[in-house]
Amino acid sequence: MTRTLVASGFHAPVRGAIQEFRDAVFVLDDTGTILSMTEGAPVPDGATRLPHSHILLPGFVDLHIHAPQYPQLGTALDVPLQDWLQIHTFPLEARYADLTFARAVYETLVSDLLAMGTTTAVYYATVHVPATQLLADICLTQGQRAFVGKVAMDDPAACPPTYRDASTDEAVTGTRAVIDHIRHHPGNAAGLVQPIITPRFIPACTDETLAALGALAAETGVRVQTHVSESDWEHAHVQTRHGISDAASLDRFGLMTPHAVLAHGTHLSPADMDLIHTRGACVAHCPLSNAYFAGAIFPLRAALERGLHLGLGSDISGGPSGNLWDAARMAVAASRIREGGTDAADPTRGDPGARVDFRTAFYLATAGGGAALGLPIGHFAPGMQFDAIAIDPTAPLGTIRLWPGQTGEVVLEKVLHTAARANIAAVWVAGRPVKP
Ligand code: GUN
Ligand code: FE
User: Fold this and answer.
1) Atom of ligand 1 nearest to the CA of 234
2) pLDDT of 404 strictly over 90
């Protein structure tokens, strides 16, 4: 069975170039794969035609989310990373031993993210196996494409006794249990949800656990996610402990695998970036979180020019917004601050040429994230999955105000910078309507 949908909109298959399409006829198969996309083709009977004013965009790919931190979104942002983890975050995450609490948070989070157009999410859960399995179940029920990982963290020097894996064996056994649950889930035949091996970051793990998880990735072929060189403190911890950079150390433990998602990377050296690129891993740029915790602005333009695979992350709750719209806006703003510099009294301030614009931010939120993950998502073409957002720029309760004469790319620019939840009229994952 095929379905046909007719829509106009924008996508960015290649960074820097926006493509607009008008009255494109999409033919989808029942797995949500686009069989054809033809502008101006005859519209068959039974086709769904989006309202003329609606704007179709690819769904957003959020490469870095801590699902259990959703309750503290918008709070607890008054201390540095290492204190934030101990004072606020580990005690909150410890509560996911309680499945009733976990269900309430995870159902709300997944539905809020889908409503905002996040069609693919790369999640950290907690150390708890049952709550992590529940998050995967909820993604499947609500139809969100996702990677879901049980957090591994076992170093007693860094993790409280109430919230850590008791041993390397517990970290590995729990990770295996979640991999098996997701791989053999009866509702996951299409592989919409995939497991991901998740050592929290080097400072929270013993060397034995890092090595065991690297071996598990090699054995199972399961993807890896972790944090890399996020802040001065984190970067220096690894340098002092292992005598090499964070990226080089992850690589030595076998954790820098193809499509591994490394969050932040604000303190990566050019050599680290080249190593990540060579391994086929990617960086999740989380500019809003970086403003609070990184102590530096990620050199986005330089990283793109080195060919690094990059996408965006909200890093819930490392910044006060959980959606990728704000991540895209902040990516542009942060690059402008990096270009201009911060201290008017310093005549050498700034980084000439560091800025990116809305075209790059839109690419990173969609095709960039999809390519970083190596999935057929992020733009529209035959063979790609139909993961999409329909924007209604005329929604009275929305925040987009288009004026006569605003056409073409300016419409996308306006949408990207000013859309709100009320402007999101429909969302699809794998061709299935998923907007709550
Ligand atoms: N590093 C280790 N854990 C975390 C976390 O939960 N959030 C952020 N931003 N960085 C981390
Ligand atoms: Fe994070």
Assistant:
1) 1
2) yes
> What CATH number has the domain spanning 60-373?
3.20.20.140
Question: Which of 77, 82, 89, 289 for a ligand 1 pocket mutation test, highest count of atoms within 8 Å of Cβ?
Answer: 89
89 within ligand 1 shell (Cβ under 6 A) = yes
Which atom belonging to ligand 1 lies closest to the Cα atom of 264?
A: 9
Q: Measured between alpha carbons, how far is 15 from 7 in angstroms, rounded to an integer? A: 22
At CB < 8 A and 24+ separation, what contacts does 413-419 make? 413/358, 415/55, 415/57, 415/391, 416/325, 416/328, 416/329, 416/358, 416/361, 416/362, 417/329, 417/358, 419/325, 419/391, 419/393
Q: Is the CB of residue 319 below 6 angstroms from any atom belonging to ligand 1?
A: no
Dump pLDDT digits (tens) for 356-378.
Answer: 999 999 999 999 999 999 999 99
Question: Mutation test of ligand 1: which of 81, 126, 159, 317 has the most ligand atoms closer than 8 Å to its C-beta?
Answer: 81
Q: How far apart are CA 417 and CA 353, in angstroms?
A: 22
Task: Give the largest CA-CA distance in the chain.
Answer: 67
* Distance in Å, CA 77 to ligand 2 centroid: 14
CA quadruple 370, 416, 115, 75: dihedral sign: positive
Residue ranges of domains in the chain? 3-58+378-433, 60-373
pTM over 0.70: yes
Domain 3-58+378-433 identical in fold to domain 60-373: no
Q: What angle do CA 70, 324, 363 make, to 5 degrees?
A: 155
Q: Which residues contact 100 (CB under 8 A, 6 or more apart)?
A: none
| Ligand 1 nearest atom to the CA of residue 204, by list position | 2
Question: Which residues are paired to 146 by β-bridges?
Answer: 121, 193
Q: CATH code for 3-58+378-433? A: 2.30.40.10
Tokens 């990540």, residue located: 276
Which SS3 state, helix, strand or coil, does residue 61 take? strand
Q: Which atom of ligand 1 is nearest to the CA of 124?
A: 6
Give residue-wise pLDDT tens across range 221-250.
Answer: 999 999 999 999 999 999 999 999 999 999
